[in-house]
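Treating backbone geometry as a discrete language has practical consequences that deserve illustration. The amino acid sequence and the backbone structure tokens for this protein are reproduced below.
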Amino acid sequence: MRKSIVLISVGHACVDVYQGSVAALVPFFVAERAYGYACASGIVLAASLLSSVAQPLFGVLTDRWSMPWLLPLSTILGGVGIALSGVSGSYALTLVFVAISGIGVAAYHPESARVARIASGGRHTAMGWFSLGGNLGFAVAPIMVAGAMSVGGLRWTPLLVVPALVGSVLCLAVVRTLDLPARASTRSTGTGVDDKVSFGKLSLAVIFRSIVFIGLSTFISLYAQQRGANGTVALFLLFLGGAVGAIIGSRLADRWDRVTVLRHSYLATVVAVAGVVFVPGPAFYLFVVLTSAGLYIPFSLQITLAQDYLPTRVGTASGVTLGLTVSVGGVASPLIGTIADRTSLQTALTPLLVLPVLSWLMARRLPEPVNQLTGQSSAR
């Protein structure tokens, strides 16, 4: 595997550890500051709201200009925001710092996906490794946060800036390895015919999928504790299963077409989520892993599909798929939290069972596009 893919995959992990850190910090905010479910989910919303708006905008910018300098800068911004989130006891300042981290994450993903596409030559397996890096970052987040919090609680969140420092160095190495143009005058648009209708359907499918993932990642630690399970372990397994799913998805797409893999994954997720919500005992952990794998098998495939549906706007496609649609899940979290405050967490999480079905409906008639870099279709 090319050195550049390895570097950008590890760099991706160093950024997405901060997306995972938001959910990992929620139980500590609840414990130390006595936040209710709605207030706790508001922290997730703060990380998601600005990110959901900013990420497509950064995608448009990277379609117009090559902006590799965004990679190290956005990595640092994502880390600094989370590092400062626990320092102040003010809820408002916590929201501000988490939002700053969200903007850093938003700035990183469209350009990194464009660079990964160049480095991978559009290969599913290579893009799977890029996605794996991000998922490993998610998986490490609960362990990293728990370690920092064990030192002295929320006031020790500045320790969490370390991955950002490492990631920024790796991003610089990627820029040098690929000899990417650093000047903003270099355009990065591609060629081909855009399929906006299919892109819109795919985006809706990703939105429904993201609400399930963000909803579970926000509340699964608290839900696990209510059921006598370990919350940190449950969140770790949710994120770790995603890492496994990303690699499985890229392998399956080399055997079947991407759209077929998406459809089957969405349907399988329905059963897995039902297990998380309703099955008691140790099997709870198994269903957490299965849910995560089901949600993340399509992840890298959604990115390449979006890029192939919008070949002239690769940055925009990446920004919407990795940003706007994913962040909408965070916007839905306060609604889940409000329902949980008024009823129970189990009641609030039960509607998540319907959403993978909606994703399947959106993907049901999607065509398998030609890969604009390889000139081949994945359809078999």
